[in-house]
Amino acid sequence: MRTITLGLAGCGVVGGGLVHLLSSSAESLRSRHGVRVELVGILVRNVARDRGLSVDPSLFTDDVTEFLAADADIVVEAIGGEEPARRIAQATLASGRRFISANKEFISAFGTDLQTLASTNDGVLQFDAAVGGSVPIIRTIQSALGGNSPASIKGILNGTSNFILTQLERGKSYECALAAARERGLAEDDVSRDVDGRDAAAKLAILAWVAFGIPVGSVKPRTTGILPDPSRLVRAGAAVGGRVRLVAECVALPGNRLTAVVEPVVVSPRGSFGQTVLEDNRVEVDLGWGSPLSVSGPGAGGAPTATSLLSDILANASPLARPIARNERAWVSVGDPRKHRWIIGADASPELIVSCCSEAGVPVTDVLHQAGDAYVTTGPSPTDRIDSVIASLRNIDLKPLRARFEINESEVVS
After folding, report:
1. How many beta carbons lie within 10 A of that of residue 395, not counting itself?
2. I need a surface site. Which of 19, 185, 220, 386 has the fewest CB within 10 A?
3. How far, in Å, CA of 295 to CA of 10, rounded?
4. Tens of pLDDT, residue by residue, the chain (414 residues)
5. What H or E segment, with its residue span, contains residue 164?
6. Which residues pair with 7 in a beta bridge?
7. Beta strands in 254-390 (DSSP E)
8. b/e map of 326-356 (b: 16 or more CB within 10 Å)?
C-alpha cells in the first residue's frame, strides 16, 4: 500500500468535490490502485466556514506559509485567481514536487514559466483538469501526437455557456437558464468569463501550447462571446435551421502560423457539435487520419473537474515528461486570414443590412426574418469586413449580431 500525501489549495465547488471524492472512493483507491491518499493541509479563505465535509478541522488554514510547510507529496490548486496560486505553484515546483492545477486562467498566463521551473527542479506540472472538466483532452493529445502537430483543434470548451444555449433552444429565458446553471453548480455568481468567451479562450491557449508547443502566453485568440443577447443568437441559428454553439478553434496555417478564434458558430443540429448539449464539452483534433480524434463529456461542475484532478493525482507522472511539443517557439500566432460564411442580424429592415454589407464588400446570399429581426447570410468573407458591417449598424443605433455559419444546404433542418 502506497500513501500519497496531498495538500489542497481551495475547498469550494471543485476542491470540496475532490475531498468528497477522496472519501467516497477510498476503498476503491486501495483495492484497485494500491494507493491511500492522505490530506495533510487545506488552504481556504475562511477557516470558520462550514463546508459539510468529514475532514479534521485542524487541516484547514488560511495561512499560505503554514500550508506550504505541510509535508505534501502533491499540491493541488483549485483556489482560482493569480495569487496565492502563483506563490504556491512556484514553491511546490521549486522543491521538486508535483503541482496539479484546475485553474485555466492561471495556467494560460504562466504555464510556460511554470514548466521551465518544473523542468529545472525535477518537479511535475499537471493541468488536465484546467480544460474540459471530465474530458481527458490534454492527456489524449499528448498520447496521440508524439512529436507531431495537428492540423487543427476545434471544440466546445465551456460547459456553462453550452448549458445556457441549450436551455434557450428549449424555450427558456436567459435568466431562467442562468439560474438553472447555478442551481446545478455549473456557474459561479460572476458568470462573465463563461459567456463573454474568455474562459474558452484561456483553455484554447492551453491546448495550443500542448499541441503545437507555442508558448501559452503568446496565443491571443480573437474572442467573441454569446453576449449581449444570447436569445437572439439562438433565434438567428434557428432561422437558418441550425444551432448556435460557442466554438473555440486553433488552426495551423502555411508558414508555421497559427490562428486562434473563439466565437458563436451556427452548426448543423445533426452534427457532433449540434448534438453536444447542456454542460457537455467536445474537442475534435485533426491529425490527418480522415476523421478527427474526438473526445467528449461533462465540461462544467465540481464533480467532473474533481474527477479529473483525482486522475492527475493517480497518474504515474514523470519529471522528464514535457507537456509541450519539441518544436516549441516554431509557431507564430496570427490573426485569422480565412474567409467564412456568416449570418448577420439586426433590429432593422433587411434592405439596411444588405446596404451595409454592400458598402463593406460582403456578398449577401439570403435574407430572412424572425421575431422582429432581419437576418442575412453571406458568402465567404474575411472577418475584418464583417467587423465593418457590424460597426456600420451600431453607428446608426442598431443592435446587430453575427455568427459564423457552417451549415451546408444538405444539413439545414426545415
Report:
1. 9
2. 220
3. 28
4. 889 999 999 998 899 999 999 999 999 999 988 999 999 999 999 999 988 898 999 999 999 999 999 999 999 999 988 999 999 999 999 999 999 999 999 999 999 999 999 999 999 999 988 997 777 888 888 878 766 789 999 999 999 999 999 999 999 999 999 999 999 988 888 899 999 999 999 999 999 998 888 888 889 899 999 999 999 999 999 999 999 999 999 999 999 899 999 999 999 999 999 999 999 999 999 988 888 889 998 877 778 889 889 988 988 765 544 444 444 547 899 999 999 999 999 999 999 999 999 999 999 999 998 777 899 999 999 999 999 999 999 999 999 999 999 887 555 554
5. helix 159-169
6. 41, 75
7. 257-267, 280-286, 293-298, 332-334, 339-340, 342-346, 364-370, 373-378, 381-382
8. eeeeebebeebeeebbbbbbbebebeebbeb
Active-site residue flag, 220: no
DSSP 97: -
C-alpha cell at 84: 496565492
| Alpha carbons 222 and 248: distance in angstroms, whole number | 10
* Cα(188)–Cα(302) distance, integer angstroms: 11
- Listing DSSP states for 303-348 in one string gives HHHHHHHHHHHHS---TT--SS-TTTT--EEE----EE-EEEEESS
CA distance 208 to 330: 12
Separation of alpha carbons 17 and 99, rounded Å: 18
The helix (run of H) or strand (run of E) holding residue 67 is helix 64-69
Within its chain, how far is the Cα of 245 from the centroid? 13
3-class SS of residue 55: coil
Name the residue with cell 485568440: 221
Active-site residue identified among 154, 172, 203, 339: 203
Q: Extract the C-alpha cell encoding 362.
A: 460582403
Q: What is the pTM of this model?
A: 0.90
